[in-house]
Amino acid sequence: MYKILKREVLVPNTVYLKVEAPEIARKAKPGQFVILRVDEVGERFPLSLTGWDKKEGAVEVLFLIMGRSTMKLSSLGEGDCIMDVVGPLGRPTEIESYGNTMCVCSTFGVGPAITLVKALKEKGNKVVSVMEAKDETYLFWEDRLKSVSDETHVVLGDGSRGKHRQASQFVKEYLESGNKLDRIFIFGRVFTMMECSQATKPFGVKTIVGLTPIMVDGTGMCGCCRVSVGGETKFTCVDGPEFDGHLVDWELLIKRKRAYLIEEARAFDLWQLDNLRRIAELSELPERVSVV
Predict the structure, then answer these.
(1) Spatial CA neighbour of 47 closest among 37, 55, 56, 39
(2) How big is the CA angle at 219 (ends 217 and 225), to the nearest 5 degrees?
(3) Residue 69: which of 169, 198, 214, 205 has the closest Cα?
(4) Does domain 2-90+260-281 bear CATH number 2.40.30.10?
(5) Under CATH, which number does the domain 100-256 receive?
(6) Helix or strand (DSSP H, E) at 50
(7) Block means of pLDDT (10 residues each) for the chain, length 292 residues?
């Protein structure tokens, strides 16, 4: 059992948890993830690591409420326990002295982006960070990202922070303006990763994306997380979760992520009906959303 040390609803549909997991905290590296199971009848599902504290023996995760399992997880409070937390899993990010780098993040991708920016800075890289959100209501941890980045830019879908409404528009214009980038990293929504990858491809800038397909065991046994990268089948849990965004078959990835939308919605609705009291106790819990 893994005790929840801290819980916070950051913005509508986005929840932060700090969980007691000393063995994972000792080994965690940027780019890795954990597999959770809320209770004995719960499914296994992955969450990117947002941070870790070796001295405290704790790991941090951010997640969107997308379905039954994430709603169950978000309904737990401080002091409650998660049945299983397995990790760290996946290949760590390849971090070198690249030179000029950019980290683009949206929604839950802000968490892994911050850990990566810190690591890139330790290697002597210049880091320009770009945050994308629907509007000010869904913007969080801007101060954290600014504190570790050389530059930070915010792009809001309602256009209230400038002329850009999507991160991909900002990235394209940034490169068109003659700014040199040696490596770009992107975390968060699938469409953000796909569109930014399409924006960087004409400029030949190596673009790394952190994929989040449906996953079950996290060790390469089930094959559920398979993706096509450069025409080859890869397993995100053991070959990734990070890949070259210019080589990912985005259409196939989106189709696979949407394969169980009807079943997910039904499971979510049934659990919600059976747990109205618990939801009422944690009244800030929001609606279910799609990560795509």
Answers:
(1) 37
(2) 65
(3) 214
(4) yes
(5) 3.40.50.80
(6) strand 45-53
(7) 94 93 96 93 90 95 88 90 94 95 94 95 96 92 95 91 88 95 95 96 96 84 89 93 96 84 77 65 52 46
